[in-house]
Request: fold
Amino acid sequence: MGAKTILGIILVLAGAAGLVIGLLGIFGKNVTAQSPWMFAILGFIFFSAGIGLMKSTGAKQA
Reply:
């Protein structure tokens, strides 16, 4: 695995975690003192950047 693939995986995982925390805060109980919209927006940005990076490197799915 190359550096781009590893960075893509990290971005996807960070984005998914941000989306989960953000959506839990928006639709349920806020688990942090920060705005849940911040987590949701940053999670979406990181997730889409990671997916785009994985597509551009041609990483194979398991």
Q: What stands out?
A: Helices lie at 3-27, 36-57. The chain has a mean pLDDT of 88.
